[in-house]
Amino acid sequence: MTSADLVLPPTDQQTPTAALLQAPEAQALDLAIGDMNLLLEQHGYVIAVYPTGLSPAHERRLHAIRSVMESDRIALLKVDLPPLGVAVLVRQLRQLSICDFSPGVVASAARLLAHYIHAGALLNSVARLDRVPVSLKTHAKSWVPGSQFAVLAGPNPQLVKIGTGVEPPAGPEFPTHLLVAKGQLSSEWVQQTLAPAWKVQAIQECPVPSGSARWWGTGKLVEFASFLPDISVIYQLVSSVRRENCHWCGMELIGDRCGFCSSPLAPAENRMHSTGVLNHGAPAPPSS
Questions:
Q1: CATH fold of 118-227, please?
Q2: Are the C-beta atoms of 41 and 73 separated by less than 8 Å?
Q3: What stretches in the chain show pLDDT beneath 50?
């Protein structure tokens, strides 16, 4: 991970923690290369997950380390989820890392699992929100004192102005837990209105990630993310997808792109027909 506050507490005693890949201003390049080499010696492979909002300098550092080391055992996964959603995804990948999946399957599973994370926030303004489409009319409404907006960034972007009789954004159609991180906005709307509407089975709270205010365009927010809490369900979900071998680096993968070298699958005429779920839309999760 690229930020310590994106490493959520483990759900059980078996879930491993995550290593921190520090920013250039916090660590010299030679030390960062040494740390990466140590991780490879200890674990064999490294799957580095980072959000789209990561600073360009930090992202360049990650690619520089992999380039200097000339290693095909380092996967760099850029995830287009809000910070809390990224943290949830990383924890799920940590859970998968101790299952009987190859590193290639774990890395490529990130795209599948991200589809089942409903990540959003309650905001007092969308005037500076550029991650989710916002109309000019909604921008104008955000200047009205007391306005609040429920914004869902993924898997399907939605924006709803909170008010009497207004339905919350459409949520998951399968059992989930809800993680809530309270910023500078004082509101219980997420716990009292959104959670019942989404029929979540449990609510957990955590500190708001440091990058959330920048991602959402305001620090006056309550960030939330619903997710599949049961590792057995996650395991079944990943297992249900047909596995392929990357034609470029040879790593095992699911879906249509290698998690390590980012190479797409070979053209269909050069491989057997795949019935993998990522080629036909994500399926409903297996029942727990």
A1: Hypothetical Protein Tm841; Chain: A;domain 3 (3.30.1180)
A2: no
A3: 269-281
